Amino acid sequence: MKTDGPVAAPSNFSCLSLSRWSLRLKLTLGYALVFAVSIVLGAVGVYVVSSASLTASLDQTLRETAAVAQASIETQNGQSSFSPELKATGDLTIELLSSRGKRLASIGADEDIKEDKAKPPPLQLGAMGFDNNRVFTQRLAGGQYLRISRPSDTLTELLTDLARILLYGSILMIAVACLVGYVLADRALKPVDAVARTAAAIAGRGNYRERVPAMSGHDEMARLTNTVNAMLDQLEHTIEHEKQFARIAAHELRTPLTVLKGRLELTLERPRDAAAYQKALSSMQGRVDALIALSESLLALSRTDAPARLEPVDLAAAVTLASEQFGEIARTSDKRIELSLTESWVSAEAEGVQRVISNLLENALKYSSGETVKLSVKSQVLTVSSAGAGPERDQWTRLLQPFERGSGVQGISGSGLGLALVAALTRRWNAELVPQWSPARFDVEVQFQAARPPTGQATLVLHTQPTAHSTKGQMPL
Questions:
Q1: How many other β-carbons are positioned within 10 Å of the β-carbon of residue 286?
Q2: CATH number given to 308-406+416-447
Q3: How many helices (H) and strands (E) does the chain have?
Q4: What's the CA gap between 95 and 148, in Å, rounded?
Q5: Which residues, including other chains, have CB under 8 Å from residue 162's CB and lie 6 or more apart?
Q6: At what angle do helices 220-267 and 274-302 cross, to 10 degrees?
Q7: How far apart (Å, rounded) are the C-alpha atoms in residues 313 and 323?
Q8: H or E segment at 444?
Q9: Does the domain made of 220-300 have the CATH classification 1.10.287?
Q10: What's the pTM?
Q11: For residue range 188-210, what is the model confidence (pLDDT) as tens digits?
Q12: Phi, psi at residue 385, to the nearest 5°?
């Protein structure tokens, strides 16, 4: 019993072979196929129209000749014949037939041919083709027929020549179309080749500074090269940023780890009593807590490159929560936190907003020269105010980079990641971080995008004792 397995193999092979063809070849063959079908249909149309036109012209000549011949028919003694003045030109044959088709008279090329030498055309009115002749038959009064015929060899030869010209011309045009189509496809796909080569070079050598040659104009290929180059620019910026970040992070982590290792070695250098071990471990615990805080800040900073999941956030409630968390720290450092809040819903991420407020409030408590740090919320703007001159204006941009700290603050603990994380988060939410300097105060504003509060959300109302520093209500802590 035969199976169908071998039958499917050629189809799979054809599909596999087609998948290996280059895009240029596929485009060229597709273009050539469409062009060939168009040319063939056009050639067939030209041939059919030309054949019909030439045949109609020949039939019209036969009709005109019949009209002249009909006017030249004479009848004498009951016998019909053509007038002596009637002459058939060229290869025309004019015949006068009886009602039964018997030839009564003829003029022209076949007038001497006897009827038994060839089978005569049927008595069919109108024009028709018969035995390489074009025949026109017309019925006359009295039941007689007038038949005009002419060989169609010339017409056949002319149509044959036309068919040959159309055939050879179509083949030539299709061949030229294939060549031109391949050239155009090759030219159009050169930018794609350049993109592929550049991508291969980047993957092979790791040289992400290479770029695709830019194309002039505003067509699809120009947009492709410009888009790929823009993507490579962003890729280079991201890679350089990550490399720099990794170098700085490694350096910042190495220092406390080295200190911690040194203290461990010093502690284990000789036997000690329990109190000495307790003191050493307590000291190292502080270092470990600092390392954990640094690691968490690094992790949070690395996550800012992920797509943002924006949601409505109650900014006033977030500020209230942060002020409660830092209340004990403020009292320990003989400072107080004042709030001036109005209900304000912003488009951000709740956890990120809490971190932004905490970082700005922590910096204000560390570096403020006064006793009061003020947090205010109004019209989707968070403002953190502290006494003192703040950082130098020309240093602000640098301080927004990871592990950068201001001059003269080396004695104050910190990792240099607070402002960098705030800047990254505000960019992530399309918010703006705006510093403001005044002679006696330094303010940092975060201008958020507005958001609608969730349906059914209760309005936040703060009932506090008013002070000279608040128009909406303050909460001294």
A1: 10
A2: 3.30.565.10
A3: 10, 14
A4: 6
A5: 46, 47, 50
A6: 180
A7: 17
A8: strand 441-447
A9: yes
A10: 0.50
A11: 788 788 778 877 877 777 777 77
A12: -110, 140
